[in-house]
Amino acid sequence: MSHYDQGFWKWVKDNVDVAIAPVEGVKKAGALLSKGVAALSMVGIWNGSPKNEEGIPELHPQLKYFAQPGREAVIVFDQDGKIKTQASVTAARERLSDCFRQACCKVTCLAWETEEKGIDDAIAANGSQWFDEMWKKRGSKPKTVKLSRIEHDLPAWNEKSITDWLATLYEKKLIYEDRTKEWYLYGGQKEGVWSITSNESIERMLMTQMDNLLDESKKFNKQIYTAMKSVKESNRDKFEKKELLSQLKEQLIDYRSYKLRFVKDCRERLSRVVLIDKFVSKSDPNLIPMANGVLDLQDRILHPHSPKNHYTSALPYEYAPNTPYQPIKEWLIEMLEGDLSLVEVVRAYLHGVVTGRCDWQKYLELIGPGGSGKSTLIRLAIALVGFENVHNTTFKKLEKSNFETASIKDKRLVVITDAERYTGDVSTLKALTEQDTLPYEKKRQQATGGFKPTCMVILAANENIKTSDSS
């Protein structure tokens, strides 16, 4: 192959009874030349019949040189079973065949039954004797190809298939809690955090995926129709065309438009697939979820977020170990009038708020007149854990409303203001700080059992709190 031509191609030119074999690529041409076939290498299946300035296909000059009346041109293109590739190969082969026929050449095609796509691989796998037999069997029409099914992950358009597809798509990122009848979505609102998501939001999310699925199905079917068009325009007889068209039609996706009822049905079915009895948030005082990862307080290593953690909140800032804290300590000393023991108590409680130490079963009570720094300290606590992780309430709402405790679920901090104005029972506050089960009830929804709170509590009042509970 590395030697200069010593007259072989001139000999081919002078002997019209010698067949030529246009083939894609030098490797395939070399394999055929080694078997005594006058193979002509093309750079791409379309380059053998480029279009002229008027848009009419014509033979490449190097092919035209050998395209003499009566010469046989054996087109040897890959035996690819993929629909999109097969459509392109069929169209390119038919165009090249027409150009050779216009030059009064006899056009035949080489086809084989083995699994190898290219003729070079087929010769290497099956041997010289196999090739000799295949060369003798070359025909004037391309052999009918058994098309392999095109590779895709698009589901059938029915409730079960769509739901299974969605379940795979949202694997480990979507949970439905049986106890509270709530959806949890990982990373939906904040990276690394599972957040409660409404039915309507879930349905909107599913609709977006279904719309994408429709677009992908249309693109897939467009490939099928392109292949069918090439088959119809080919020089195969009507029986072969019918067989190939039947194979192609079988692979069309039967997609259709959908209604909201279908989305709701898929949501209902999906809730059973991703169902768990109880969503348990990870509670480890040595691990703190932050904006840029999960901080291990023992070794100060920042680990990446993971849905396995089941965190329902994260601090709203990134871990920055060199951030100065002295200004906050100085302000606490000033607010507490130099009482260092109280400063350490407040700092300890703020540390508990950040690390989620609800196991302490303690609440922080702030008493003092307006302007004494209560509100500033509360704002500091809220800033430490993030506003979205805090629930503000009053004693009256907490103790009297049946629906208030549902708002506490998965919060890191509960702030109770105007506490001195309430003089009634504080059983809910006791249950909250002692980690007893609280009821989970929402308006216009059936009660769904209870939950154990995982939050710290800060009370703020201008005067000492007076309640009917002496304990």
From TrEMBL:
SMART domains registered for this protein in UniProt: D5_N
Domain SF3 helicase: 337-471
Keyword ATP-binding recorded: yes
Cross-referenced Gene3D superfamilies: P-loop containing nucleotide triphosphate hydrolases
GO molecular function per UniProt: ATP binding; hydrolase activity
Keyword tags: ATP-binding, Hydrolase, Nucleotide-binding
Domain of life of the organism encoding this protein: Bacteria
InterPro entries per record: DUF3854, Helicase_SF3_DNA-vir, NrS-1_pol-like_helicase, ORF904-like_C, P-loop_NTPase, Phage/plasmid_primase_P4_C
Protein name in the entry: DNA primase
PROSITE patterns linked: SF3_HELICASE_1 (PS51206)
SUPFAM superfamilies: P-loop containing nucleoside triphosphate hydrolases
Pfam families: D5_N (PF08706), DUF3854 (PF12965), DUF5906 (PF19263)
